Automatic annotation (TrEMBL), chain A:
Membrane topology: Multi-pass membrane protein
Transmembrane segments: 12-30, 99-123, 130-152, 172-191, 231-253, 273-299
One Pfam match: BPD_transp_1_N
Keywords: Cell membrane, Membrane, Transmembrane, Transmembrane helix, Transport
Record-given protein name: Glutathione transport system permease protein GsiC
Domain ABC transmembrane type-1: 95-296
PANTHER family linked: DIPEPTIDE TRANSPORT SYSTEM PERMEASE PROTEIN DPPB-RELATED, GLUTATHIONE TRANSPORT SYSTEM PERMEASE PROTEIN GSIC
Source organism: Cohnella nanjingensis
Automatic annotation (TrEMBL), chain B:
Keywords, ordered alphabetically: Cell membrane, Membrane, Transmembrane, Transmembrane helix, Transport
Protein name per its UniProtKB record: Glutathione transport system permease protein GsiD
Function: Part of the ABC transporter complex GsiABCD involved in glutathione import. Probably responsible for the translocation of the substrate across the membrane.
ABC transmembrane type-1 domain segment(s): 102-291
Length: 306, 304
């Protein structure tokens, strides 16, 4: 296990390197000259050259990458082209709303998803199973932005129970987290159903029943606990995907998080901010995958790494 | 997948007498149809998809009104006998725009999945057949793509290429490719070891012939299943990008773009948002259920 962990940790380094190169190249991959795009259509040649110099685009590519990495390692993500603010400052105020949103979404998705999955597995091929499957497959198919707008229309506009957007109180997070968690909930429901069904076939479950344990004990204490490990692992892996979904949900509910910042920066062509966000998202996914991989080994000793 | 009784069986291709092949295909299709027909929900979904395709093809003949003609006497009207789904902020008939938009929305997602299937299949075949550094390169590449959430990857690609529907197709195709590459690779790996491939090789067949005439047919059922499973996600992704203003222009009758426009009128005319959203939901639901059913009917690994 120790050796495996070390291998995985070392394996992350080239991946991070590739990501940093890709994100660095991002500004060069945009069709056309980025300096010209930033300067606008009516800019003079001097203005464009000024921006090129400011961004260091007139240096050789390897030198640009070197400078970029130097800045990065000293915690400097550059300045927003649009507002001139340091990107790190822009990010700092936007991390918390996104973090709250994703944590809340994951929490309810995990609880409800597990519940539906367990009920479906226990009542396999009977009506609770069919209802559970229908809920799960609907949750997977529903467009998040539409669900969000329908919730706003019903609960904010019609009933006035919760605010339409923003992050002024805890109430503001109810609808966004419901919207964001729906897809993950469905996935976890389906996954925990199949995981439970698999566990219920194990010998120790038969033993439990044979020695006269009540069905609730068999299901709750033995089957659920053993399939929980796998479900939690999958939930962890999905965390990154929640961050992806937050882009959409934050935009629907006007939440000032990093997802919304990404959409705004793309629409306003604020390339330095896009670049920083892509780097942050990518690094986050790599680290989450790493943590889940390592946790999986700790939680499930049957897995052997070679 | 060598013992697949429904998919393309081992040895299909040149080793069979020519006249036997169509009969076998027909028999297999019958067996598949019998199995698929039993899943009532999936069968209903298939019927709905056929209906959607017909609407996409016959669109212009079905629209009750011209989808692009504004009518300033009928702005933002709710559903009525004249306008089943109401009218939008320019007084255009929403039903007609939804019908007209079916073609655009399906074309975007189907072409994206088709491109992903072609690219992924080629990569998967090469990766599985040749192995070695090529395999490692392709698989590490798909690992990198896989580690990003679909939507975020698509947004990143659109950020580079710029907004527009053709770039949405590229973005959705890129994030679909690794799943095909992985699945086809694993099928290729198992087929590569079978006796009939070894026999063909010992007869001096070239690699390209072995891959295309003998291994590729074995992968077809996996490709079909994955295509059907991914279309729903592709429709969702394309609609999401259009909703964020990165896909279809707001003038185009795209489902996602219609919804995005209606957003500003949510409090006074919610039907402008409800109907396009419901259409996207039903289409995605149908493809997801259909994909599930197809997998159960085609995949020999899943037993009831």
């Amino acid at each position: 296990m120790g050796r495996y962990a070390l291998q995985r940790l070392i394996g992350v380094i080239p991946l991070l390197f590739i990501v940093s190169v890709l994100v660095f190249l991002f500004i060069h991959l945009i069709p056309g000259d980025p300096a010209r795009l930033i300067a606008g259509k009516e800019a003079t040649l001097e203005e464009i050259q000024g921006i090129q110099h400011q961004l260091g685009l007139d240096l050789p590519l390897w030198k640009q990458y070197f400078n970029y990495m130097g800045d990065l390692l000293s915690g400097n993500l550059g300045q927003s082209i649009r507002s001139g603010l340091p990107v790190t400052d822009m990010l700092a105020s936007r991390v918390m709303p996104t973090l709250w949103l994703t944590l809340l979404s994951m929490a309810w998705a995990l609880v409800i998803g597990l519940f539906i999955g367990v009920v479906s597995a226990v009542y396999r091929n009977r009506w609770p199973d069919y209802v559970g499957t229908l809920v799960a497959i609907s949750g997977m198919s529903i467009p998040g932005f539409w669900l969000g707008l329908v919730l706003i229309q019903v609960f904010s506009v019609q009933l006035g129970w919760v605010p339409t957007g923003g992050v002024d109180s805890w109430k503001s997070y109810i609808m966004p987290s419901l919207t964001l968690g729906a897809g993950i909930m469905s996935m976890l429901a389906r996954y925990s159903r199949s995981s439970m069904l698999e566990t219920m076939r194990e010998d120790y479950i038969r033993t439990g029943r044979a020695k006269g344990l009540r069905e609730t004990v068999v299901v709750g204490r033995h089957a659920l606990r053993n399939s929980l490990i796998q479900v939690v692992t999958v939930a962890g892996l999905q965390f990154g995907f929640l961050l992806g979904g937050s882009v959409m949900v934050e935009s629907v509910f006007s939440i000032p998080g990093i997802g919304r910042l990404l959409v705004d920066s793309i629409l306003y062509r604020d390339y330095t901010v896009i670049q920083a966000l892509l780097l942050i998202f990518a690094t986050q996914f790599i680290l989450i995958n790493l943590i889940v991989d390592l946790l999986y080994g700790v939680l499930n000793p049957k897995i052997r790494y070679s | 997948m060598p013992d697949n009784s429904i998919g393309m069986g081992a040895g299909s291709g040149s080793s069979l007498p020519l006249e036997a092949a169509p009969a076998r295909t027909a028999g297999r299709f019958k067996a598949f149809y019998r199995k698929f027909r039993k899943q009532r929900l999936a069968f209903a979904a298939a019927c709905f998809i056929i209906l959607l395709l017909l609407v996409a093809i016959l669109g212009p003949f079905l629209t009750p009104y011209n989808p692009d003609t504004p009518n300033y006497d009928a702005l933002m009207q709710g559903p009525s006998a004249h306008h089943w789904a109401g009218t939008d902020e320019y007084g255009r008939d929403i039903m007609s725009r939804l019908i007209d938009g079916t073609r655009l929305s399906l074309a975007v997602s189907l072409s994206a999945v088709f491109i992903a299937a072609v690219l992924g299949t080629i990569l998967g075949l090469l990766s599985g057949y040749y192995g070695g550094w090529l395999d490692r390169l392709i698989m590490r590449g798909s690992d990198v793509l896989f580690s990003f959430p679909d939507l975020l990857l698509a947004i990143g690609i659109v950020a580079i290429l710029g907004p527009g529907l053709s770039n949405v197709v590229i973005a959705v195709a890129v994030f679909g490719t690794p799943s095909f590459a992985r699945i086809i690779r694993s099928v290729t790996l198992s087929v590569k070891e079978t006796l009939f491939v070894e026999a063909t090789r010992s007869m001096g067949a070239k690699d390209s012939r072995i891959i295309w005439r003998h291994i590729f047919p074995e992968t077809v059922s996996s490709i079909i299943v994955n295509v059907s499973m991914r279309i729903g996600g592709a429709i969702l992704a394309a609609a999401s990008l259009s909703f964020l203003g990165m896909g279809a222009k707001t003038t185009e009758p795209d489902w996602g773009a219609m919804l995005s426009m209606g957003r500003d009128y949510l409090s006074i005319a919610p039907h402008i948002v409800y109907f396009p959203g419901l259409t996207i939901f039903l289409a995605v639901l149908a493809f997801n259920i259909f994909g599930d059913g197809l997998r159960d009917a085609l995949d020999p690994k899943i037993k009831n």
